Amino acid sequence: MKQRKTEARGRKRLSLVVITLLASGTALAAQWLDLPEPADDSDYYDNGNPDPAKAALGGQLFFDKILSGNLNISCATCHHALTDTGDGLSLPVGEGGRGLGATRDTGVGADAIHERVPRNAPPIFNLGAREFTTLFHDGRAQVDATQPSGFLSPAGDALPPGLDNILAVQAMFPVTSGTEMAGQPGENPIADAAAAGDLPGVWAQIAERLQNVSGYVEQFVAVYDDVNVAEDITYVHVANAIAAFEALNWRADNSPFDRFLRGEKAALGFEARRGMWIFYSPRKANCASCHSGTFQTNHGFAAIATPQIGPGKGDGFQGRDDFGRERVTSSVGDRYRFRVPTLRNVALTAPYGHSGAFNTLEDMVRHHLDTIGSLESYDAGQAVMPSRSDLDALDVVIMNDEVSVANIAAANELAPVQLTEREFRNLIAFLHALTDPSSIDLRDDIPGELPSGNTLAE
Questions:
Q1: Cα 70 from Cα 187, distance rounded (Å)
Q2: How is the chain split into domains, by residue range?
Q3: Which of 167, 202, 315, 418 is the right S-S partner for 321, CB 3.0 to 4.6 Å?
Q4: Is the CATH number of domain 45-251 1.10.357.140?
Q5: What is the DSSP string of 77-128?
Q6: What is the pLDDT of residue 458?
Q7: Within 10 A of 377 (CB to CB), how many other CB atoms are there?
Q8: How far apart are CA 350 and CA 88, in angstroms?
Q9: Rounded to an integer, what distance in angstroms lies between the CA atom of residue 452 and that of residue 458?
Q10: Is it true that the peptide bond before 50 is cis, omega within 30 degrees of 0?
C-alpha cells in the first residue's frame, strides 16, 4: 500500500512538473511531450502558393452544378464554405436532395434521393499538405508510384495520367457516383455511363459540357499550357483546378496551438495547455498514439467501435454494414478500420465518425474514452439527417442487430481511458485550440457568379 501511494505521488509530481513547464511555454516541455513541428509553406504543394488563377477556376467548378448528371448538385453541396467544408449532416443527402447543410431535405417525387450517401462527408482542411497521401475513409485513393497514373484508386488503370496530387485524384470520383452527383440510370447519359462502370465516359461528358461554356474555356486556356482550344479540356484539368482551390483556400495552420509551437507562449490558455498534456502524454489520454504529427494524424487506420448507421456499403447483415479498410485490402484484419482523420479545425466539423454517428465533439471524445460502453449504449437519435420513413428504417439495421454490434465491438483497438471531468474539459479546450481563426468565416470562398450561368450550390 505504501509503495502504491509513493508511486501515485511520483506520478502527480511528474504531471505538475510538466504542466509547469507547459505554462512557461519552454522548449523542454515540447520535447518532453514530443510535440510536432509547426507547419510551414514547405509542407504544402507548390510551397503553399498554388496558382491563384488555377485556384479561382477550381473554386468556380467546385460550386457549379454543371459537374453533376442532372445539373442539380455540386461538390460544394456536401463540402460548403458555409458548413466548414462539410455539410453539417451525419450522412450526406446527395443527388436529388434540396437545400444546404442541416436544412437539406431528401427531395420530392421522382427526383427524390434513392438512398443516403453511405459515409460522412469529411472536411477538406489542410489536404493540400504533402503528407496526406491517402484519402477517403477507407483509403481507397493512395499515392502509388507503381501505378501508371502514380496513384492507386477505384478506377485502376482507367485513371488518366496528369493528376497533380492525391487531392486531385479524390476530385475525380464524386461525379461518377449515382448517389452523390451522377444520378440514376435513365435520367441522363452521365448517370448511364456511371452505372455501366464507364468512368472515362463520365469524365469525357463533363469535359464536353465545359468545352461549350466560353467563360470556362477562356480560363482553361489561360491557366493550362496544354489547353489551346476548347477540345483540349479534360476532366483531369478540372480535378487539378479543384485541388488547387481546396489547397489554397482551406489551409488551416494558424491555430493557437500552431502559434504556441512557433514560440508564442501566450497563444494557449492554461486549460488548453493542460489539455495538451492530457492529449500527448502516454500517462493520460495518449491521443497522440494515433493523432500524431503536424496535423494530428498518423495517416493510419484504426477500429474504434464506431456505431454503424445509414445504408451501409453492402457488407454484413442485410448488406447494411461497412467493413471499412477491408473493402480495399481484402484482409479480414482490416475489418471496421477507418482512416485516422486530422484533428485540425475539429471543433468546426461535426458530426464525427465515418458514419457521422456523433453530433458533438464531446460525445466523440467520450466515445474514444470508452468505446465499447459508448457503442452498446448508442442512441441513433443524435444523428443529424432529414427523416424519411423508408430511409430511417435502414439507418438502424446494424445497430439493432446484436451480432453485428458484437462484431464491431470485437474489432475494437482502443483501451478504456479514465479522465476526471476537469481533465475531460481541459482536453476539449485543447481540441478547440486546434481551430484556425481564419476558418471560422469562409464566406469569401464562395464565387460571386459562375460562367455557366448556373445558380450556386443550394
A1: 7
A2: 45-251, 254-435
A3: 315
A4: no
A5: HHS-GGGTTS-SSSS---TT-BSSGGG-B---GGGS-SS--SS-----TTTT
A6: 61
A7: 9
A8: 6
A9: 16
A10: no
233: cell is 479540356
Residue 203: name the closest of 214, 194, 212 by CA.
194
Is 45-251's fold the same as 254-435's? yes
Q: Which residue has the cell 507503381?
A: 146
Architecture per CATH, domain 254-435, reads as: Orthogonal Bundle (1.10)
What pTM was estimated for this model as a whole?
0.93
Work out the widest C-alpha separation in the chain, in whole angstroms: 83
What secondary structure letter does DSSP report for 229?
S
| Site of grid cell 467563360 | 215
In terms of Cα–Cα distance, which of 242, 221, 56 is closest to 164?
242
Helices (H), 338-440: 361-369, 371-376, 389-395, 402-410, 421-432
Return the H-helix or E-strand segment holding 338.
Answer: strand 338-339
Assign 301 to helix, strand or coil.
strand
pLDDT in tens, 190-232: 999 999 999 999 999 999 999 999 999 999 999 999 999 999 9
Measure the CA–CA gap between 343 and 361, rounded to whole angstroms.
Answer: 11
Binning pLDDT at 50, 70 and 90, where does residue 264 land?
A: very high
Q: How confident is the model at residue 456 (pLDDT cuts 50, 70, 90)?
A: confident
**Using CA atoms, how far apart are residues 361 and 348, in angstroms rounded to an integer?**
9
pLDDT by residue (tens digit) across 85-96?
A: 999 999 999 999
Take residue 208 and report the three cell numbers written for it: 464536353
Residue 173, all three cell numbers: 470520383
**CB under 8 A, 24+ apart: contacts of 194-203:** 194/69, 199/155, 199/158, 199/172, 200/158, 200/160, 202/175, 202/176, 203/160, 203/172, 203/175, 203/176, 203/234, 203/235, 203/236
